[in-house]
Automatic annotation (TrEMBL):
It holds the Pfam family PALP. Keywords: Lyase, Pyridoxal phosphate. This is L-serine deaminase. Residues 362-438 form the ACT domain. It comes from the Eukaryota. Coiled coil: none annotated. One of its GO terms (molecular function) is L-serine ammonia-lyase activity. It comes from Peucedramus taeniatus. Its cofactor is pyridoxal 5'-phosphate. InterPro entries: ACT_dom (IPR002912), ACT_ThrD-II-like (IPR044561), Ser/Thr_Dehydratase (IPR050147), TrpB-like_PALP (IPR001926), TrpB-like_PALP_sf (IPR036052). The gene is Srr. CDD domains: ACT_ThrD-II-like, Thr-dehyd. GO terms for biological process: isoleucine biosynthetic process; L-serine catabolic process; L-threonine catabolic process.
Length: 438
């Protein structure tokens, strides 16, 4: 959708008379018109507390036929763009509340940002986590300086306990929301990108339920240049934002998966402010498959040496999947907003991405259990320059002829063409070879 009037007027239409849900933090009273001046003020106030991350030209540009610039927000101290909104939120608290302290109850990027910046500002901070939280997240929150308390077996249990502690002790219970203060802090990303990359044609952001980054940055970018296309990307499995925009109000998608791979991408839509801003200022929202996100993570690791999670890779995934053909030949910035992927998930994601990218394949075939037959198979693999990752032999449960052995082999290839060449070479020698489909 095109911007046809002054940006402040659009923002005023978007945010006027929006009721704030009573389940959010007491900062809901701070909701008001988000103006470009608010974002500028946030940028000035937080400049000494967060990194002005680089927005660099990417080697992926030639591969996808456009000038791609990556805004590397995963380089923030806690590995997430959420630091911007959190720091401005904490700095905007009354001194009395800063003295009493704040409390959060989730293992999200938001909570880790609160843990770190509250400690830096000498604000007492408590993080309530369920007993099922990954040990790495618990350790990081403690190292950032928070008092971490394990309570309950579910996120709901820990949230109820946090609310009770807040009420009893005068702490401010913080939950990621879309107050003007928080959105203004996140909007500083758009402000920086506009300064760092001249003549931008489009900017791509992660979307999903927590679309505060998309909404706040869109407000900054559309004020500076209404002709810049602002695009949001979410998962096909959890099209929360698209559903909410269609319905005209935040929706709770019962299909949302809380698997840590998706992080905030799969969260429910948390506020009317962000939703209204997105509807007014964002030009397009697209959805991508999980496979595209994994390939995007692989591309960023190989070409940019960037280890990111699903939320960080989802913006580039729209280009990987070919969802935005209109951007060919254009100057495009992509926000890489988060790099907090647990180590055990990282290993699984890269292994799966290599398979999806046709660079790891598996086949099985039956050969005679005689000296020399295995070496002939290995000679073919060596000649075709395939790297053997794993090889197994099964003799006991082979159902074909006697004195044969089933060989199950996993190999690494260069690309899809190399895989096809290897397959043809093996089928020529072993017509009954079977390939495991990815």
């Amino acid at each position: 959708m095109k911007i046809v009037s002054r940006n402040e007027e659009l923002l005023r239409d978007a945010l006027s008379c929006i009721p704030q849900p009573s389940t959010r933090t007491s900062l809901a009273s701070c909701n008001k018109l988000i103006r470009f001046e608010d974002i500028s003020a946030a940028a000035f106030k937080i400049q000494c507390g967060v990194q002005k991350t680089p927005c660099m030209y990417s080697r992926l540009s030639k591969q996808y036929g456009m000038d791609i610039y990556l805004k590397k927000e995963f380089l923030q101290y806690t590995g997430s763009v959420k630091e911007r909104g959190v720091l401005y939120l904490l700095m905007s608290l009354p001194q009395e509340q800063q003295r009493k302290g704040v409390i959060v109850a989730s293992d999200s990027n938001f909570s880790m940002a609160v843990a770190y910046h509250a400690s830096e500002l000498r604000v007492p901070v408590f993080v309530i986590l369920s007993t099922r939280t990954a040990p790495g997240r618990v350790r990081m929150c403690r190292e950032y300086g928070a008092m971490v308390i394990s309570y309950g077996t579910t996120a709901k249990d820990s949230q109820l306990h946090a609310r009770r502690l807040a009420q009893e002790n005068g702490y401010l219970y913080l939950e990621e929301e879309d107050s003007a203060v928080y959105l203004s802090g996140l909007g500083t990303v758009g402000l920086e990108m506009y300064e760092q990359v001249p003549k931008l044609d489009a900017v791509i952001f992660p979307a999903g339920g927590h679309c505060g980054l998309l909404a706040g940055s869109a407000a900054a970018l559309k004020h500076l240049n209404p002709h810049i296309s602002v695009i949001g990307v979410e998962s096909e499995s959890f099209p929360v934002l698209q559903q909410s925009l269609k319905a005209g109000h935040p929706t709770d998608d019962q299909a949302c998966n809380n698997h840590h791979f998706y992080g905030d991408v799969s969260g429910v839509c948390f506020g009317s402010n962000s939703l209204q801003l997105t509807g007014k200022l964002v030009d397009k929202v697209v959805a991508v498959r999980e496979e595209d996100i994994l390939i995007s993570m692989l591309r960023l690791l190989e070409y940019e040496r960037a280890t990111v999670d699903a939320e960080g890779a989802i913006g580039l995934a729209a280009l990987v999947a070919g969802k935005l053909p209109e951007l060919k030949g254009k100057r495009v910035a992509v926000v890489i907003c988060s790099g907090n992927l647990e180590l055990h998930l990282l290993q699984q994601c890269i292994a799966r991405a290599l398979t999806l990218d046709n660079r790891v394949c598996r086949f099985s075939l039956v050969i005679s259990d005689c000296p020399g037959d295995m070496s002939k198979l290995l000679e073919i693999l060596a000649r075709e320059e395939a790297r053997v990752l794993d090889i197994k032999q099964e003799r006991t449960f082979v159902t074909s002829e006697l004195f044969t052995v089933e060989v199950i082999c996993t190999v690494e290839t260069r690309d899809k063409i190399h895989t096809a060449q290897l397959r043809n070479a093996l089928l020529e020698r072993y017509p009954r070879a079977a390939w495991t489909e990815r």
